[in-house]
Specification:
This protein has 282 residues and is of the alpha+beta class. The protein has ten helices and six strands, in the order ααββααααβααβαββα. A four-stranded antiparallel beta sheet has the order 4-3-6-5, sandwiched between helices. A two-stranded antiparallel ribbon has the order 1-2. Helix 3 crosses helix 4, helix 5 packs across helix 10 and helix 6 crosses helix 10. It is elongated.
Length: 282
């Protein structure tokens, strides 16, 4: 019987070792007091250390991880010799961490299954179809402090002075002033109401009269208008994948809980609610 079990165990290890990447992942790269450190452990430690490695130069990261694993192996051996792992508290902690690692791995696997290229594309297409068309305008403006200054700006522009040149000279907007007053494309909700109302009433190439807002006085010229284009799929795909992964994980947890029988033994039992009496028949 013992020989049969040993043979089965040997066959299991042989089949496992035949899997692609197994030999490379379990390649021993160092030893400490005879205890091996493998490529797989380096990968796990790198993932576990996370941000602690962020400030370390790339060329030193591998050495830092191996040094960490050396300390881990030595510390774990010392703890085992001291029989730290023999008590019930350690067993409970080990069981808890095993459950946590299992759940994390399960959710990660299921999330990868959910975030397929086909699912991402379908979600993107369905979302774009459901979007309400939104108008955008492209405008320039010149910001000054007083109404009289704004009126003077309007006169200069009506006489043919270049808008971008005037904006660069006198606009108080530190951002757009350096860009000839250009604000680029924007929707109505991105600007203060007074400015947005005036800008969206203009036709292409039209100049506004002075417009007052909390920032001062504006003179606006409309460059163009359009229906806001859909976002580029490649640009938003990382966010779509993240949404699909989180939704899949959330759905799994909700389904598991819905199908579970949860008993709270640390709380008083909820008294049974009597069924309503049936009305007497006349």
């Amino acid at each position: 019987m013992q020989l049969t079990r040993l043979a089965a165990l040997s066959l299991g290890f042989a089949l496992l070792a035949a899997q692609p990447g197994f030999a490379q992942a379990d390649k021993i790269v160092a030893r400490v007091n005879g205890l091996p450190i493998t490529e797989r452990e380096i990968g796990l430690a790198t993932e576990d250390l996370g941000e602690r490695l962020a400030q370390i130069p790339e060329a030193r990261k591998r050495d830092e991880v191996i040094n960490y694993l050396v300390d881990l192996k030595l510390g774990a051996k010392a703890a085992a010799d001291a029989k730290v792992g023999d008590g019930p508290d350690f067993a409970a902690r080990l069981a808890y961490n095993r459950d946590k690692v299992l759940l994390d791995a399960y959710l990660a696997n299921e999330a990868r299954k959910a975030a397929t290229p086909e699912a991402a594309r379908k979600l993107f297409d369905d979302t774009v179809k459901s979007l309400t068309p939104e108008e955008e305008v492209n405008a320039r403006h010149i910001l000054v402090e007083e109404e009289a200054q704004a009126k003077a700006v309007v006169e200069r522009l009506k006489k043919g002075e270049d808008f971008a040149k005037v904006a660069g000279e006198i606009s108080k907007d530190p951002g757009s002033g350096k860009e000839g007053g250009s604000l680029g494309w924007f929707s109505k909700d991105r600007m203060v109401p007074e400015f947005a109302e005036a800008a969206f009433k203009l036709t292409k190439g039209q100049l506004s009269e002075p417009v007052k807002s909390q920032f001062g006085w504006h003179v606006i010229r409309l460059e163009d208008r359009r229906t806001k284009p859909a976002p580029d799929f490649a640009a938003v795909k990382p966010q779509i994948d993240q949404y699909l992964e989180r939704k899949a994980q959330q759905d799994i947890i909700v389904a598991l809980r819905d199908n579970a029988k949860v008993e709270r033994l640390d709380q008083p039992a909820t008294p049974a609610v009597p069924a309503p009496a049936e009305p007497k028949k006349p």
